[in-house]
Amino acid sequence: MNTPLIDPFARAITYLRVSVTDRCDFRCVYCMSENMTFLPKKELLTLEELDRMCSAFIDLGVEKLRITGGEPLVRRGIMTFFNDMSRHLERGALKELTLTTNGSQLERYADDLAAAGVRRINISLDTLDEGKFADVTRWGRLPQVLRGIDAAQKAGLRVKINTVALKGFNEEELPKLTEWCAERGMDLTWIEVMPMGDIGNENRIGQYWSLKDVRAQYESAYTVSDLAERTGGPARYVRLEETGQKIGFITPLSHNFCESCNRVRLTCTGELFMCLGQEDKADLRPALREHPDSDLPLHDAIRNAILHKPKGHDFDYSRQRLDGQMSRHMSHTGG
Ligand code: SAM
Ligand code: SF4
């Protein structure tokens, strides 16, 4: 039995988020510039290498795997990877296999995902207005995503909607989005916009809508009860007594959640980021590629990387400056 991954601040690392591609079929304004340059395909880990990487983390005690990107479902052959990962669910080593998606490919893949053992998924959706959806995603089409959500629910997947809170964009839609989710039995999580990557001309501070205001909107319209539930991440949850719905708030900028952090992030090139808000990373690719017949060097490289997990992040929007601004895109490390 391998000893579990414990970082220098006594936090057990049990959750791995994996970006399987930096590419996407959308160009959300807060995430990418319109003319993004993507990594050359040869730099990406192959699906077999991704499998080896994830399996090594599971051997070291990771119990939850979230597949993200870019858009994970545009990676060619990705269902093979999900099917192969399901062996870890079956043997009980992995407790949850899940993904975060923009929903565009779900009509095609929802049944296969359910068959691979996926039970819950997060779907990102910032507006229910077709024109605004096209504006914010630049390349996305709302009806296609709505069909994807239908397909996911029909396949028995539990869906949580993730919505980026954008000032002057979806503030007015809070009641409509909330009711729509309630009618469909879906929880809803709001995400504060984060300073990630160069996204062209968009003004991020203009887009920032504090989740304190979002919460205040809920409190004026519903009976809001705090939930004790913690996921080891930056999310806090409340229940709306009128609808029974869980509403989440992901506030990486205005809250300190780092003391309970249980996660690390693997990029599609095999770099491990120990913290979403720090540049510090470890390249796991040499340990993987130089030792095709043994995972021990990879285990050592992972353990060594975890020893460098920082205490916390440096994001700060105070004084209207983007302190802690990150040069990499969210699509690189996964959201
Ligand atoms: N393409 C998939 C999707 O959109 O769900 C998965 C990857 S995307 C990078 C993961 C999440 O990050 C999405 O919910 C997206 O809205 C969020 N996101 C992207 N850029 C962000 C930013 N700058 N600030 C906050 N959330 C962001
Ligand atoms: Fe693509 Fe997701 Fe980024 Fe939008 S948020 S551009 S869907 S990776």
Question: What features would you describe in this structure?
Answer:
Catalyzes the cyclization of GTP to (8S)-3',8-cyclo-7,8-dihydroguanosine 5'-triphosphate. By secondary structure, the protein is an alpha/beta fold. It has one domain (15-333): TIM Barrel (Alpha-Beta Barrel). The protein contains eleven helices and twelve strands. The chain has helices at residues 47-59, 78-90, 106-115, 130-137, 142-154, 174-183, 204-207, 211-221, 285-289, 296-306, 330-333, and strands spanning 15-19, 64-68, 96-101, 120-124, 158-165, 187-192, 224-226, 235-240, 246-250, 263-266, 271-273, 281-283. It has a twelve-stranded mixed beta sheet. The longest helix has 13 residues, at 47-59. The protein is globular. It starts with 14 loop residues before the first strand and ends with a helix. Bound molecules: S-adenosylmethionine and iron/sulfur cluster.
